[in-house]
Every structure is written in C-alpha cells, then in structure tokens.
Amino acid sequence: MMKGCSDRLEMVRSYLVDETYRDALLVQSELLKGLRETLDAKGFVEILPVILSPITDPLNHEVFDASVEYYGQNYAVTKSMILHKQISVLVHEKIYSVSPNVRLETADKADSGRHLFEFVQLDMEVAGASRDEIMDVMEDAIIYAIRNVLSKYPWVKEKYHPTLKVPAKPFKRITVKEAVEKYGEAFESGLSKDIDEPVWLIDIPLLNREFYDKQDPERPDVLLDFDLIYPEGFGEGISGGEREHEYEQIIRRMKLKGTSPEEYTDYLELAKQGVLKPSAGCGIGIERFTRYVMGLEHVRQTRLFAKVPGESAL
What we know:
The chain is of the alpha+beta class. It is built from 10 helices and 11 strands. It is 37% helix and 19% strand.
C-alpha cells in the first residue's frame, strides 16, 4: 500500500520536474484550438459529448466491459460517439464534439506507444457528405493546426521533433490492398515507418470494421472508409468514413459481423422508419495528434493523469 502511494506521489512530482508535460499542454491546447477554428470557419457547430448511453460503438476488437446499471437500465461508457453523431446531423448538418472515450484495452497494448484506455477524440460528422469531402476538411484542419503550433511555439521542432513539417495538400492515398502487397500483414506499421508525411489508408476490407461503416456498392468487398497514418512510425491517428443508414443493409452488416440487433433496438427503429440519412465523418485522437507533432515516445506523455492499459493509474 505504501509503495503504491509512493509511486503515485512520484508521478505527480514528475509533472513538476519534466518539462515535457508542460510543453505538451501548450501544444495540445493550440492543436485543439486549430482544429476547432477550422471547423468553426466551415460552418460546424460543437455539441456536448455523451458520456453514458444505452448504446455505444461495439468496436472491432475485444475490450473489457465498461457499463453500469442505473434504475433498471444498462448504460455503456462511451467508446465513441459514432451512433450519436449519425443522429446529431439530423439536427444540424455539420457537427463536432471533443469527446472523452473509455476503451478498457488489454494490457498487451501498453507498449504500443499509441494506446490509453481513457482518451479524447475530436469527433465530426457531416450530413450528406462523401468520404472525399471529410478527408478534405481534415487535411485543412491538420495543416492549419500544425502551422499554428510551429508559428506560436517554434521550439517544438528543435526541442522535440526536428523532422516535423507542415504537410502538403492533398495527402497521398494508398489502398489497404496496395499496402498489404508492399508491406505484408503488418502493413500499417510498415507504411507509417516508410512515409515522411501523413497518408490516407483507404478501401478498408469489409470485415475489418463495424456495421455502421458503409459498404462500397460498386466494390462490395471494401468499405468507403479511411484511416490517416502519421509518418515516422507514429501510426494511425484518424479513422472515419461514410455511414450505413438503410435498415436492411445495417441488419445484413450486423449479421455479417455477428452483432446482436437486440442491443441496438432504438437505433435500428430510427433506421427502419427512414429517419437516418446519409452522412460521413471521422474522429481524430487528440493525444495521438499531440504525440505525433511533438515526436514523443508514448501518448502517456501528452496528458496529465494518463491511463495506460494494464497499468495502475493516478
């Protein structure tokens, strides 16, 4: 018990003596400001995040359950606001939210450098948008945010990330099929280590994502999805794409993924009544974006009170 207390006190002391935490706060604040300013200028409105909900993103991999029962109803802690974003664009066609996410990942993710089990995404969604339109918006946002950081804090390059540069638009694109052919099964890490500017990874295979990701009607083996891959080995930083909105197609996708429709009754009823409309969007991880810009070893260095999978937290 005493050792645990001592370890926690040492963690607090590290905030005080390690300049990385102070610098990361400054950079992260400026990055968030740049992302918000870009979206605001494009007509987006910010909505408040959803922390607990009867439904949340099922994800495409296993995590520990994070739910509570309250007055007879089960509430999941938000893993992402994807389903809520689909509904929110019915109220306003362009929305975003700075959304806390809890994903109780397994301990093997601890050393990836990219995983926390509590993290923040800037989630955005646009009614009637295409994949290309969302990618275009995010290119503008990333370029603007990085340029602002380097303008306000020029020491970031010299002190932390000498090879950092403002990326050029448009970002290059590579399909998953092309990436696998070039880099093998570890294509994401191979691609990330081989590039010097962010690259869009597109045409995600059908079974690699969830029921809400839109199947390409012309190429049914792939999705109208994308990931943004940061260079220099920093890996994936954005995930998004177009959304399924038609009831029968969502049901088909659920069966294909083995997802229980009973867990999404309200959502499916909206689809069945034709309430859901076409949309597209994405989420950018704020800690991962900060890590990339600063060239840090691990996302734990990008925030106070970081929670790493499998580790005891302050």
